Amino acid sequence: MEKFKPVILDENDAFDYFNLQLVVPNQVYTPSDDTDLSIVFLKKWIQNIDQSPYSLEKSQNIRIFEMGVGSGVLSLYLASRLLQKGYLPEIIGVDINPIAVQTAQFNAELNGLEKYITFYQGEFFSPLINHHNYAPFDFILSNPPYLASEPQIIDQKNRQLIDFAWEGGINGYEVTLAFLEEVSPFLKCPGDFMLISSSNIDQTPIKSHLKKLNIEILEVLSTHKFFEDILLYHGRRIRKIG
Ligand SMILES: C[S@@+](CC[C@H](N)C(=O)[O-])C[C@H]1O[C@@H](n2cnc3c(N)ncnc32)[C@H](O)[C@@H]1O
């Protein structure tokens, strides 16, 4: 695989996305239909936050974890809109792609949101073990890679960092399941959960894993794109495990 070299990011290349300024280099996922669907949901989630289990004191922190931040767009959106609502976001975002982490950090600074979000390079929750405390989160979200891999085309030698953005494993759901495997100690009860997937892959193992985590699916949003429906699960952990 290619070695990580920081890229040069220039704020003159920024484009507007839901009133956020974003710079996205080639090796980082450009917001797409799945990002748009996530934003539709997050907008509603924030609108209803006063009625949710998060009717916290406004000055209280809302702890959020995002797996697979890419350009940082979803964490940035959450931070900016929660601040507008008078909440204090405390967001941790992780990406396996070091250029995504560099980009997300750059975009956080570009939008003046760097005080509210910390980005780490690593897989799933692993950076928390090295860097941070283990306090669980009010909300965990991810737009993970969810397409079936093509090992005959992409092998270890020609893999690019951007391939992490879409390769979900041989059946498309392996990365999602590996992530779900680690969620339990990090999600509060009550705690909210958002996950993107696709009708193109078998949803049975994903749904049964959510059930095992005591995450009740409250709604499923979808949007049609070419050959698939992009799915968005909004779940809530109501009961603790055990
Ligand atoms: C579909 S992109 C989503 C990016 C962004 N959140 C958005 O909605 O536009 C998926 C992201 O997950 C990252 N990723 C893939 N596997 C990962 C893992 N095991 N741990 C952390 N991040 C991962 C990819 O590098 C990519 O940036």
What would the keywords be for this entry?
242 residues; alpha/beta; Rossmann fold; two-stranded antiparallel ribbon; 6 helices; 9 strands; binds S-adenosylmethionine
Question: Can you offer a commentary on this structure?
Answer:
This protein has one domain (31-48, 57-237): Vaccinia Virus protein VP39 (Rossmann fold, 3-Layer(aba) Sandwich), CATH 3.40.50. The protein starts with 14 loop residues before the first strand and ends in a 5-residue tail after the last strand. It has helices spanning 33-47, 73-84, 98-110, 126-131, 174-183, 204-212; strands at 15-17, 20-22, 61-67, 88-95, 117-121, 137-142, 187-198, 215-225, 228-237. It has six helices and nine strands; from the N terminus they run ββαβαβαβαβαβαββ. It has a seven-stranded mixed beta sheet, sandwiched between helices. Strands 1-2 form a two-stranded antiparallel ribbon. The protein is globular. The model has no long low-confidence stretch (mean pLDDT 92). A hairpin with a 2-residue loop joins β1 (15-17) and β2 (20-22). It is α/β, with parallel strands linked by helices and 242 residues long. It binds S-adenosylmethionine (SAM). The site of S-adenosylmethionine (SAM) has 23 residues, from α1, α2 and β4.
Let me know the largest β-sheet.
7 strands, mixed
Shape: globular
Quick check: average pLDDT?
A: 92
Give start-end ranges of low-pLDDT stretches: none
Q: In CATH, what is the homologous superfamily? A: Vaccinia Virus protein VP39
Q: How far is the first residue's CA from the last residue's CA?
A: 42 Å
How many helices in DSSP terms? Answer: 6
In CATH, the topology is named Rossmann fold
What is the element string, with H for helices and E for strands? EEHEHEHEHEHEHEE
Q: Percent of residues in beta strands? A: 25-35%
Find the count of extended strands (DSSP E, 2+ residues): 9
Strand arrangement across the biggest beta sheet: 5-4-3-6-7-9-8
Structural class: alpha/beta
